[in-house]
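Q: Convert this sequence to C-alpha cells.
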Amino acid sequence: MKRTAANIQVDIAKGTFRPHTALSNMALAYYQNDANYFARTIFPICPVTLSSDNYYIFDKEDLLRDDWQRKPAYGKVDPAVLSEHTDTYACQVDQIIMGIDQIRQTDLTRRLGPATRDPKQQRTKAISAKANIHQDNIFANKFFKAGVWGHEETGTDSTTPGAKEFIKFSNGNSDPVAFVNEKSTEMEETTGRKPNRLALGVNVYNALKKHPAILERVKYGGSTANPASINTNVLAQLFEMERISVQRSIMNKAAMGEAPQMSYIGDPDAFLLAYATDAPSIDEPSAGYIFTWDMLGNGNILPILNYLGENGTHSEFVEGLMATDMKKTADDLAMFFKGAV
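A:
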C-alpha cells in the first residue's frame, strides 16, 4: 500500500508507526577478529577452585640425574633424593561495568535500528571484547617484554653479534631458521624440553614472510597456479614448532577524552620462544600458566551480570568479572628476543 500523509497519521494515532531514522542492516563497530587475540594461544589456562594456593615444583637437577649405583655385596646403595618445594599463585578480581540509559533506549528501540539496539546484547559483546584486550595486555606485560625472562637477547645489524645479541631478521645476512633451531637445541640441552611455541610480533612475522633464507626453502613447493606462500603453518614446519602465534591484537592506550593512541598490544619487533603444555599437567613443566578462578563458584571464568540502577535513575548496568594470575612458572623454558627487526 502506498504511504500517504493520511495513513501515516492513522498509524501514528494507533502507535504502530515506526520512523526509520537509522539503517537497520549496518552499523560501525570496531570489534576485533577473535583470531587476533593471543594470550590463550601460548600458555595453558589452569582453572583453580581457590583464589590463591600453592603448587609443587620438583627440581629438574634431581629428576634429570642418573642416580643408579652398583649394589654392594650384602649391602644397599644410599637413597636417591628427589627435592621438591612450592610456589604460589594469587588471582585478583578485575571488574568492568557498562551502563544503559533506559530513557535513551526507548528511542533506539522504536526506531527498529540494527540488532545492536538491544543494549544488553551490545554491552555483553563489548565486555567480552574488552576482556580479550585485557587478557592480551596482561600477557604482554607479564611475558612479552624485556626484563621478564632470564634468557634475553637483542637484535643487531652487525654480522658479528656480541654476547646476548643476534643478527636482526630484517637483515638479509641472518638465517632465522638456523638461529631458532640453535636456540631450541640450547634449551633442550639444559631442560630436556624442546621449545614448541613461538610467539611473533607483527613486524617479525612480516620480515620472516619475505626473508630470503625462508623463501629459498619453500620456493620449489609452488607452481604458477599455486605459488609458494609463507604463513604460520609453513613457518611452524620450518621452525619445527607445534604452534606459532602472531601478536595482532591492538588497543587504544589513551584514557577517555585523550587523543587516541592505537598500537599493537604485543611488542611488534620481538618474539618469544617457549615450551608449554596444551593443558595443565602434573608430569610436564610449562614456561607459564594462566590461572583462572571462578569467583562466583559457578564454573564461569567470565561471568556477565545485569542489574538495575537506583530508583529514579532509569538506568541499568551490565557487569563483567574476571580473576586471573598469569604467572611465569619455569624461567628456563622460555627465551625472549627483542629488536628482532
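The first strand starts at residue 45 and ends at 48.
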